[in-house]
Design a protein that fits this description.
It contains 5 helices and 7 strands. By secondary structure, the protein is an alpha+beta fold. It has one domain: START domain (Alpha-D-Glucose-1,6-Bisphosphate, Chain A, domain 4). Strands 1-7-6-5-4-3-2 form a 7-stranded antiparallel beta sheet.
Length: 182
Amino acid sequence: MADKRLAGGRLDYPGVGATEDGRPPAGFPCLVSQAYLGDGMELYRRVAQGILTWELQRRAGLRVRAESAVVIPGTRVVSGFGAGPFRINAPCEVVWVRRPLAADGPQSAGFGYGTLPGHPARGEEAFEVEIDDTGRVFLKITAFSRPSNWFYRLGGVVTRAAQRHVTSRYVEGARQLAAGES
């Protein structure tokens, strides 16, 4: 895989892995979104499986090309949205993964990935499903980022609106996974 990487370059932002510990680097706005998905360990495991196989991104309407069908640290992925000449590709690298535990009880599963050169932003985003001690299941998306260049900085309002839109699509995708929809 090392000589045929899907995307080139290195992670291009400070604070690699910060979405896992919840401390974004200085100067990077952080957004945390959470949505209730339902109840029960079966639902939790179904959503975790979807997150850890890129299905959440696909259900959000993104075109996903990944070096691995399963999310593992170091995997590179290019997500794309838009059409034709208006397609924006967003290369990232997985920086951390948390798999579901075999035991029941409160836990979380998911992953975080960071931007690579060519991404419209510099930063990190994480997708986690959590089950609490009462069996309630939540999707949690954590992101910190800044525009990668002057062009994307100019479109700040549009960029923030696009981020909110894609986040709502992730939530809808997680609800489909929770419901067991094909």
